[in-house]
Amino acid sequence: MIDNVRLRSAAMPASVISIGCPGDWVLHRIGPLALGAAAPPAVVVDLDGSSPPLPGSLSLADLVVDGVHSRYLNPPKSGVAVLPNGGVTRDQAAEVIAALASSWPAVVLREALPETQIIPLVVGMPLVTPSRPAIYQPSGRMLAPPGPGLLLPSLSRSVASSLIRGTLPLRQRWIRAWAAVWEAKWA
Question: Disulfide-capable partner of 78 in 7, 36, 40, 136 (CB 3.0 to 4.6 Å)?
Fold first, then answer.
């Protein structure tokens, strides 16, 4: 089950990636979780308070109000911590994000207007070429991406359902494919 794990400090600096999928709530919810699962230990921080919340008991708002104590800055050896939004903005959470980024090896920010977009490739839908490389998710028949970035394998219904329910299917090909985002120079 995806849940908050004890947040602890690592020697290596964090990689911080801002992603999201405006217009597709399923990919907007499960993409950040998959990206975190591809590089454990990771923390997924929900900065999109207007979307359905990510799973987790301790929220970003809790850390903004209570402060980030040292016990939250020690990542475990593996796993994914998830901080649902709780009603705060990116500006209000800036200090918390900076503290997490200085301690966690991988930080995923789910945002409504992300730096790296997840773009669904749907037959019959017009494709807009993004200004930056993106993460492309084919739906059904494989389409060529309209621009540079990562083309994910097909997403199975069982993997999508598991992630929506809050379970990480770690050994799945679709989850493993997200590791390429952490290696990309553009993300």
Answer: 40
Task: Map tokens 């739906």 to a residue.
Answer: 139
Going by pLDDT thresholds of 50, 70 and 90, the confidence category of residue 187 is low
Q: Locate tokens 């992603």: which residue?
A: 19
- Mapping DSSP onto H, E and C, the string for the chain reads CCCCCCCECCCCCCEEEEEECCCCHHHHHHHHHHHHHCCCCEEEEECCCCCCCCCCCCCHHHHHHHCCCHHHCECCCCCEEEECCCCCCCCCCHHHHHHHHHHCCEEEEECCCCCEEEEEEECCCCCCCCCCCEEEEEECCCCCCCCCEEECCCCCHHHHHHHHHCCCCCCCHHHHHCHHHHHCCCC
Q: Do residues 81 and 118 touch, judged by C-beta distance below 8 A? A: no
